Amino acid sequence: MDSGDFAAVLSTVREFVREVVVPAEDVIEETDEIPERIRGAAAGMGLFGYTVPEEYGGLGCDAEQDARLAMELGYTTPSFRSMFGTNNGIAGQVLVNFGTERQKAEFLPRMAAGECVASFALTEPEAGSDPSGLRTRAVRDGDDYVIDGHKRFITNADRSDVLMVFARTGEAGPKGISVFAVDTRTPGVTVGPRDKKMGQRGSHTSEIHFDGVRVPASRLIGEVENEGFAAAMRSLAKGRLHIAACCVGLAQRLVDESVRYAASAKQGGTVIGTFQQVQAMIADSQTELMAGRALVLSAARAYDDGTDRRIGPSSAKLFCSEMAGRVADRAVQIHGGSGYMHGVPVERLYRDARLYRIYEGTSEVQKLIIARNLMREVATR
Fewer beta carbons under 10 A from the terminal one: N or C of the chain? Predict the structure, then answer.
C-alpha cells in the first residue's frame, strides 16, 4: 500500500480503537461478543482484508504495515483483532501464497469485503505447535477427497464460512500433509460449542469434527498434494510477526494504564508514582516495550525484503509475548489490590496476555526454531 494511503488508514484505525472499541471493552467482556456495529465498521474500513492483495480487493499491506497496524489493534481487547485476524493472517495467507488463481479469485475478494470469514484448521488434540503429527486424513476418491478427523482450538470456527483444513494425504511426518478449502456447511462438518477460555472474551474458539466430509479435488490448495506443511510454516511465520506486534500494542496500553494510575493513586497521602519501586517497574516496562517495538519493525522489514523469514519472526514472537506477560504482571502489581478486581482494565488484560505465549507456536517452540535455524546456517557455510 502507498505510504500516504497507509498513514491515513493507520490514523483512522488508531482513532477507532481508542474512541469506539476501548469504551466497549466492558460490554464485550460481559457478553463475550463483539457488537455488530463494531464488526460492520471494521469491515467498512477494510480490516477484514488489509493484507489481501489489492488486485483481490484488499488493502495490500506488507509485513511492516501489518505490524504497525497490529500495534494499534493490540491496544484494545484482543477479540477485536481476532474477528478478522484469520482472514489477514494464517488462513488468508494460505490462499495468498499457495492458492491457484482460481482459488484466490473465489475467496479473497469476499474475505477482503468482510463477506467471508476464513479459519485455519490445523491444531489437533495431539498436534499443536508442531503439526507434523496430525492425524486428520484426506483420502482421494475419484474427483473428491474424503476427510476424517478432529481439530481443536480453532479461532472463529463458529462464524467461519471456509476452513483451511490441514490433513494427511501421504506419509507420516511433515511431508505428507495437504491443505484444503472446506465450506463450513459441508455435510459431515460439525463445529462444537465455544470453548470457555481464561481470557480474550469475544474471541471464540471451538472444536471441529470431520466425518466423511467430501471435498472436490479442486479445493486442494494449489491443486498439489503434500504442500500443507510448507503452507502452514510460511503462514505461521508471518502470523508470528503479527502476534508480536499485537503484544507491543497490548504492552503500550498496560504502560499507559500503569502511568495513569500511578499518577493519581495515593498511599498515606502520597502519589504512588513518586515511590522509587513503582517508578522502577514503570521504567522496566517502558524499556521492554521500546525494545519489543524496535525488534518487531526490524524483523518485519527483513521479512519484506526476504532476508529473514524464520529467525526474525520467531525471535519477535518469543520476546514480545514474554515481554507483554511481564508488563501485564507489573501493571497489576502497580495497581495493587485494585489490579486484581474485575472491571479494572489491567485485570482483564493480564488474562488476555497469557494466550500470546501459546498460540501460533509456544515460546518453547520459538526457541527451537531460532536455534535450529542458526545451527543450520552454520552447517551450510
Answer: C
